[in-house]
Amino acid sequence: MEITVVGSGTVAPRPERRQSCVVVEAGGETLVFDLGAGAVTGMVAAGVDPFAVDRIFFTHFHPDHTLDAVNLLFAMNYGTEEPRTRPLHVTGPEPFENFWSSILNVWGEWMTGDYPILTREVAHTCDSPIEIDRYGLTWTPAAHRPESIAYRLDGENGAFVYTGDTEYSPSVVDLARDAHTLLIECSFPDDAPVRGHLTPGGAARMASEAGVQRLVLTHLYPAVDDGRLPGAVKRGFDGEVLVAEDGLRFRV
User: Which letter does DSSP use for residue 17 in this model?
Assistant: First the structure.
């Protein structure tokens, strides 16, 4: 599978870091995890075709993870030369149907095209994986918002885990057990923690306990994004550490 970090930033406006968005190309499909502001143009900048998206998965409903859902659907309806015909799958944690209905209530016909939009609301605890060709997608509650979940995609070469927003969470550690790559939020410095988010020490602890091979840090507020982040994390984790940038691409 090939992963592209389209947006590595937060609600804090920064031209070099768009809001949260991750694209995974696996099983012949294009999967998108979260769609914060700037995600659609960020895909284009990263060489990802936004009109090729097959599935969208949300971790939670904060605006910096969902705002560009409106832009993407609007562009799919009016920004392409060829009308879309294949289905678009959109999935999120309960109460996702209420969230999605509110978008349609506000934007109405601008969001719906001549192709099927197949929505799915999932329980916070995964009862049955979503099968995507030879890949299996599972999820678990994350410690951020009541609806928050983290995702794991298992393939023949290993597993990829995306935490979304979370503070230290035993359930996410379990989800990431023995994964190849953990894309984890790391929002604030260790000496200035904020509830619902991770610091370098917290990210290192989760990665170490999970036994992952590679740790990729994203969702970076300016206070933690000072060039010292890899060293701070390596004090508690001895695997590979990468600091995400918009457009970072890697394989699992």
Answer: B
